[in-house]
Amino acid sequence: MAQTVLHSFDHREAIAKLCAADHRLARVIERSIEFRLELPKMESPFEALLEAIVYQSISGKAAATIFERVKAIGGNRHCPTPEQILAAPKRVLRKAGLSRAKIAAMKDLTQKTLEGVVPTLEEAHAMSDAELVERLISVRGIGAWTVEMFLIFRLGRPDVLPIHDYGVQKGFALTYGKKEIPKPRELAEYGERWRPYRTVASWYMWRAVQLAGKKGRKIMKKSAAKRKAEHR
Hints:
By secondary structure, the chain is an all-alpha fold. The chain has helices at 11-21, 23-31, 45-55, 60-74, 82-87, 90-95, 100-115, 121-126, 129-136, 144-153, 166-175, 184-190, 198-211, 214-228; strands at 3-5, 38-40. Helices cover 62% and strands 3% of the residues. It has a two-stranded antiparallel sheet. The longest helix has 16 residues, at 100-115. The model has no long low-confidence stretch (mean pLDDT 90).
C-alpha cells in the first residue's frame, strides 16, 4: 500500500514546543528517533473502519487473510462499497472468516455510511476531532480508541491523546517514574501541557516503552493486541 509522509503540521516545531514545556519528555525525545508518521492511502473512512473491524481481536496475519477475502467481495482486489457489503449474504461473510459480531458491526457501519453518519473523506477532513469521535462511536463495534487511532494514523491529526491506550499509559509511567499505570483522567490532565501536539507526545510515549528494552517490547505487544481487540 502506498505511503504518504505526513506534512499537515511542522513536527520540528511540535518537538521544540514539547521540549520547552516538559523536560522529562524532552529526555525521551533526545534518546529516541525523530518523530515520523506515515499515512496509508485511504479512499474513505468507511474503508478504514471496515478494515479496523476485521482486525479486532485476532492476529495481524489472520486479519490480513480475512480482509483479502472481504475485498474479494468488491472485485479487482479493491475494498467493497457499502452497497456491496449490505448486499452480501451473511453466509458469504461467515465463509470469509468473520464472526457474527463483526458481521453485525460491518452491517451497521455500512448502514450508517449510507445514511451519512459516517462521513466521506472530504467531510472528515473538514470536521473536528470531537465531531468525528461523536459520529464514529455511534457505529457498533467502534469505540473511542479505534477512532483515536483513525485520527492519528489515517488523518494525521496533531492533537490526539489516546488516554486508554496501554502503550501510552506505560510510556507515561516509565517517563515520569510512576509505580502504577496512570488513570485515564490523570493522563488527560497531565497531557494538557502537550497541546496542541498531543499526538507527537503520545508517539514518544510509545517510543519510551521501546527504549525500555525487552520489557518494553512485551508491553508494546500488549498494546498492539489491545488495538486489535477494543471490541469483541
